[in-house]
Amino acid sequence: MLEDLISFHSVSSHSLVAVSTGYFIHDFWDMALNQSFKQSWELLLHHTVVISCFGLAVINRLYLGFALVSLLVELNSVFLHIRQLLLLSGQRNRPGTEVTAPRPTVTYMTNSWLNLGTFLVFRGCTLGWMARWLAGNSENMPRSILALGTAGLSLICIMNTVLFYRLLRADVLTNTKITKGQH
């Protein structure tokens, strides 16, 4: 697969990309039906790009290797989802510190650093590698496929840059100084 990300095909690779496409379609419809557009437009746009690219790979049985590489990005989603669960369950700050000087829980901070680290590795490095691969293999691809891949990857990279900034601002660059008399 690593030698030919365009033509490589196996039943397991095709199945994984097909099931992933189904997940993104289901999640798209769930968000579209149950959340306001203002609240979910970024993820709807992301899912539209992924469904388009993965759908092309599944239907044509081409670019499955490239689609599989892109799934490495989703490994970071584990920590993004844990972060969301911690926020929803009110476990961001240590009890009793919310008003005077909010101090994140050990669990939240551990997840936060794992989230940022896996973000850089599995999102940053993977998307960077994918951009380099697209540029280096552009002559082996029809222009329409190259345009879809370039536009989709560019959009995903921009969205991930914004997401990384938001995470950094919310979890690292917040004012968590301890006031006098607190330990």
From TrEMBL:
<feature type="transmembrane region" description="Helical">
    <location>
        <begin position="113"/>
        <end position="133"/>
    </location>
</feature>
<keyword id="KW-0472">Membrane</keyword>
<feature type="transmembrane region" description="Helical">
    <location>
        <begin position="41"/>
        <end position="59"/>
    </location>
</feature>
<feature type="transmembrane region" description="Helical">
    <location>
        <begin position="145"/>
        <end position="168"/>
    </location>
</feature>
<dbReference type="GO" id="GO:0005886">
    <property type="term" value="C:plasma membrane"/>
</dbReference>
<dbReference type="InterPro" id="IPR006634">
    <property type="entry name" value="TLC-dom"/>
</dbReference>
<dbReference type="GO" id="GO:0007009">
    <property type="term" value="P:plasma membrane organization"/>
</dbReference>
<feature type="domain" description="TLC">
    <location>
        <begin position="1"/>
        <end position="173"/>
    </location>
</feature>
<keyword id="KW-0812">Transmembrane</keyword>
<dbReference type="InterPro" id="IPR050846">
    <property type="entry name" value="TLCD"/>
</dbReference>
<keyword id="KW-1133">Transmembrane helix</keyword>
<dbReference type="GO" id="GO:0071709">
    <property type="term" value="P:membrane assembly"/>
</dbReference>
<dbReference type="Pfam" id="PF03798">
    <property type="entry name" value="TRAM_LAG1_CLN8"/>
</dbReference>
<protein>
    <submittedName>
        <fullName>TLC domain-containing protein 2-like</fullName>
    </submittedName>
</protein>
<dbReference type="GO" id="GO:0097035">
    <property type="term" value="P:regulation of membrane lipid distribution"/>
</dbReference>
<dbReference type="GO" id="GO:0055091">
    <property type="term" value="P:phospholipid homeostasis"/>
</dbReference>
